[in-house]
Amino acid sequence: MAARYPVDRTRVLLTGMSDGATYALLCGFREGMPFTHLAPMCGVLHPILLANGDLGRARGRPVYLVHGALDWMFPIYTAHLARQALEAAGARLVYREVEDLSHTYPRDENPRVLDWLAADATA
Fold first, then answer.
1. pTM of the complete model
2. Rg of the chain's alpha carbons, rounded to an integer?
């Protein structure tokens, strides 16, 4: 991509929905990956991140975590656990709990995520 298009390597966002969100967190905290910002939507923090110590790579990493309070696939308590673990690991976390959202992509968050990415002072 960078060979064909100008890429700001200080703002490389990885996002995903549901299992894509879980995978975004797995990839985003893996050593050597180019992603600077993560925005998982309605996923879970995979236990392997805790078991392997990969969550240590969360320190200082900007993460925009969104979850629906009505999510039936990954109940809201899973988002609360993720929030606690990411905060404890030192991630620069924005946590958004959408009251009337089930296990659905939160389209209304798109402008907020893009504004967050554009405004990041560390980029």
1. 0.91
2. 14
Average pLDDT, the chain: 92
Give the pLDDT confidence score for residue 122 in this predicted structure.
Answer: 57
How buried is 101 (Cβ within 10 angstroms: 0-12 exposed, 13-18 middle, 19+ buried)? buried
Rounded to whole angstroms, the Cα distance separating 16 from 57 reads 19
Q: 13-115 belongs to which CATH class?
A: alpha beta
Torsion angle of alpha carbons 73, 79, 80, 82, nearest 10°?
Answer: 130
Cα gap 31→54, rounded to integer Å: 8
Q: For residue 8, what are its two tokens?
A: 């700001």
